[in-house]
Amino acid sequence: MARLTVVAEERDGAGGGEANLRADGVTHVFETAGGPLMAVTDVSFTVEEGTFVGLVGPSGCGKSSLLQMMAGLLNPTEGRIVMGEEEIREPRPAEIGVVFQESSLLPWKSARENVEFPLYLRGVERSVREKKALEMLDLVGLGEFAERRPHELSGGMKQRVAIARGFCQDPSVLLMDEPFAALDEQTRMTLGDELLQIWERHKKTVVFVTHSLTEAVYLCDKVLVMSARPGRILKEIDIALPRPRTYDLMATETFGRLRAEIWELIRGGDRP
Amino acid sequence: MTDLAGATREAGDREPKRPLIGPYLLRMLCLLAILAFWELAPRMEWVSPVMLAPLSATVVTGVSEIGLFAGNLAVTVGSLLLALAIAIGGGAVAGLLLGGIKALRETLLPIMSSIYAVPLVVVYPVFTAWVGIGAESKVLFGGIYGFFPMLLATAAGIQTVDTRYMIAARSMGASRRQQIIHIMLPAALPSIVSGVRIGAAMTAIGVVVAEMMAATAGIGFLITQNRTMFNTAEVYFGVFLVLLLAGVIDWAVRSLERRAGAWYPHKVKML
Amino acid sequence: MSGAGRLSAQIGIVVGIFLAWEAAVQTGVANPRIVPPPSQVLPMALAMLGDPEVLHHLWITSAQVMLAFVLVAPLGVAIGLLLGESDYFGRAFKPFFYFVASVPKSVFLPVFILAFGIGFTQKVAFGMFQAIFVLVISAIAAADSVSADYLKMARAYGASRRQIYQDIYLPAMLPVIVEGLRLGMIFNITGVLFAEMYVSRAGLGHLVANWGMSFEMVKLFAGILLAAVLSIAVNESLRWYEKRIGAWRG
After folding, report:
1. Candidate from C34, C110, C197 with C-beta closest to B121
2. What does the mean pLDDT of chain A come to?
């Protein structure tokens, strides 16, 4: 944590350490051409500070809408999202980092420029943000590729850069919206492991939206299972597996049972 | 088609014959034939010399009057530069507004793309009636000729900016201004630059067309003047100079395009 | 904004422009001798549609445009498909067509006058010349747009050669070709009008040029309005057809 002081100080001054993330009766209704569409309805949960929480559910269940509301990109129609004591109504880049589905890296900027972009937006001095960006790229093992443009990187490398960007401001919360969805199975396993290693060292609060049940069980402390649209929380499942997680856990009976339980919930939730 | 051809070939079980003349050679032979025809047809009186002046005569005439041609070409280039300022500058600003603001994009933009189908050449008499046949009318006309393609390309670039970039920038706390400068403009740059390429070419056509219809100087004026006097060689040489000018403009914008598009993995296709 | 709302907003904008134009003249902001008001231009345009002399010129222009189109469309598409489908001819002549397509063609008009005179034939020839390159280029693009995967699939399921042409090639290529036809038509109309304005004895372009030179501003504006409305109508109807047959392109 010591080497992340630059931005961390600002945060401590602004917000304090309390970073529980809470949803209180959140409902979101989209206005579409075909009439109002209820994406999520009456969702409540708490994400404890420093935990790794997964969000799973069938396609179109409003997982991404929920994540966008936590990021302050979207406001609930009813209810509220609260971090610590404060309601979230707009993006808070210093406290909440977001890593998106597929690559949202800017193709005209190098890997380093992409990573330092959030700092640049806030007017952080050039030498400081460059140093910070290179540090973050080292963290994800891409130090050598700092000056490459996204189209010169593989899919897995691009997502590593996106993760580095998410960590760059040392936010207390990291929201990840199906960050590995576009990657092949091997790459996503490797990246999941790397993400865990970084997380064990820095202990951020992570909310991780995914389609992959294996990924959810493998990575998370707790998994929130959502129903089909309009999305509700069907159940919160505690993943009582020891950390650090290793691949042989996947072969255990507990792992299989947890995975099966989630699958049953989602399948059942699909039926009206 | 390659697949289908391959299939029939397999069925017939025959190797395709190698063509006697390679495609590149065929192209060169055709080019050579055209040049030969250009030289021989008027000399042998296959066609009337009024219709076509021999290639050699065209070059000789052009070179002997190079001062006259250069002077008029300079006039054209001067008007063109002013017209480009209207077309590119105005088109870019209008395109940014029409592409970037939702209400305008939904209402005005379709109207603009309909207007693009109007043969603008019919508007030229209005300009000459308003401002006479001097430099002003051709600058205005050339400017408007290039304005629409520039506007449409810029607007297209702005409205196709990937929303993922915009959402990501917002999550990082980018202000509206920062979103425009750091996301929208760079993302739209490749199509803006291809707008410049098409717009600049159209502006050049507009200026020359205006000079051909009514003007007192310029390369288009020189072409028309020589046509009325049946100086066929001069007409062809003038046409050649206009093509050369268009080539130079295209080359200049393309080198700009290569730089602007360097970040982009593949070329952006426009129009 | 809903479709109907958008359309009414657009109609509102067009009406608004005409009203502002009228108001500018009425309030003396614009000189009516230089900018005639819509209250004079619109009735004049309508009157022209009943004027046998104007209709005669309009007919000549239409005849030139249509004849040029009927002649050039099959020619351009055939050349384009040949270049797109035949590897050999494609490699030999595609660069030539790409090059000429990027060249300003209006400047060749004097050459057409030297070659064909100033009559009907010259207008048709020049209209064809303006249109043919975009037709060839889009037909090449159409041929390229047929995915090899579709052909493989069709052959795997035993499609006959005729079925492959009818059910794979035609629907895949048609929208691109119709787009080319639309662009070709615009260039064709522009070419014919320009040729008429440059030197001729008949046609809408001829009238417009003359009205301009004799400062008959009401007639000039009315003529421009007619030309604009007719070309927009042609363009939009082809665009509508293009959208309809290409709906699968999304």
Report:
1. C197
2. 85
pLDDT band at C3 (very low <50, low <70, confident <90, very high): confident
As given in the structure block, the two tokens for residue C119 are 């009559």
* b/e code A161-176 from CB counts within 10 Å (16+ = b): bbbbbbbbbbbbbbbb
Q: Residue A175: is its pLDDT beyond 90?
A: yes
Verify whether the Cβ–Cβ distance C91 to B50 is below 8 Å.
no
pLDDT of B92: 93
Q: Which residues does chain B have within 8 Å of residue C208's beta carbon, measured at their own beta carbons? A: 122, 125
**CA B261 – CA B265 distance, rounded (Å):** 8
CB contact under 8 A, C88 and B19: yes
**Residue A114 exposed, middle or buried by CB count within 10 Å (0-12, 13-18, 19+):** buried
* C220 shares contact with chain B (CB less than 8 Å): yes
Please give the span between the terminal C-alpha atoms of chain A, in angstroms, as a whole number.
48
Structural Rg of chain B based on CA atoms: 24
* B174 contacts chain A (CB < 8 A): yes
Contact check, Cβ <8 Å, A104/B164: yes
Residue of chain B whose Cα is closest to the Cα of A121: B174
Instruction: Give the position of tokens 């008029």.
Output: B72
**Mean pLDDT on C8-32:** 89
Q: Within its chain, how far is the Cα of B259 from the centroid? A: 19
Q: What is the CATH number of the domain that holds C65?
A: 1.10.3720.10
ipTM here: 0.86
Q: Give the mean model confidence (pLDDT) for residues C183-188.
A: 94
Interface of B with A in 182-221 (CB under 8 A): 182-183, 186-187, 189
Among C161, C246, C179, C98, which Cα is nearest to B1's? C161
Whether residue C212 lies within 8 A of chain B, CB to CB, comes out as yes
Residue C70 has pLDDT above 80, yes or no: yes
CATH homologous superfamily, domain B65-260? MetI-like (1.10.3720.10)
Clarify whether residues C157 and C226 are in a common domain: yes
- Section B179-188 average pLDDT: 88
Read off the pLDDT of each residue in A71-88 and give the average, rounded to a whole number: 90
B204 CB neighbours in chain C (<8 A) are: 104
Q: C125 and C21, same structural domain?
A: no
Cβ contact, residue pair C155, B123, below 8 Å: no
Q: How far apart are CA B208 and CA C137, in angstroms?
A: 25
pLDDT of amino acid A103: 66
Q: Can you give the length of chain C in residues?
A: 250
C-chain CB neighbours of B26 within 8 Å are 92
CB spacing of B122 vs C110 below 8 angstroms: no
Cβ of A51 under 8 Å from any chain B Cβ?
no
User: Is the per-residue pLDDT at A2 higher than 70?
Assistant: no
pLDDT at B6: 42
Which pairs from A188-197 meet CB under 8 Å and 24+ separation? A188/A212, A188/A215, A189/A247, A190/A156, A191/A156, A191/A159, A191/A160, A191/A163, A192/A218, A192/A219, A194/A140, A194/A141, A194/A160, A195/A163, A195/A219, A196/A52, A196/A244, A196/A245, A197/A244
Contact assignment for B189 to A98 by CB distance below 8 Å: no
Q: Are C71 and C25 in the same domain?
A: no
Give the one of A72, A97, A104 whose C-beta lies nearest to B165's C-beta: A104
Residue of A nearest to B173 (CA): A93
Q: Cα A192 to chain center, whole Å? A: 12
Task: Check pLDDT > 50 for residue B173.
Answer: yes
**What is the pLDDT, as a whole number, of residue B261?**
61
Domains in chain A: ranges and CATH: 2-95+171-270 (3.40.50.300)
Q: Are residues C205 and C163 in the same domain?
A: yes
Residue B165 forms contact with A (CB below 8 Å): yes
Q: What is the mean pLDDT of residues B7-15?
A: 44
**Count of domains forming chain C:** 2
Nearest-Cα distance to chain C for B59, in Å, is: 16
| Full domain range(s) for residue C172 | 36-249
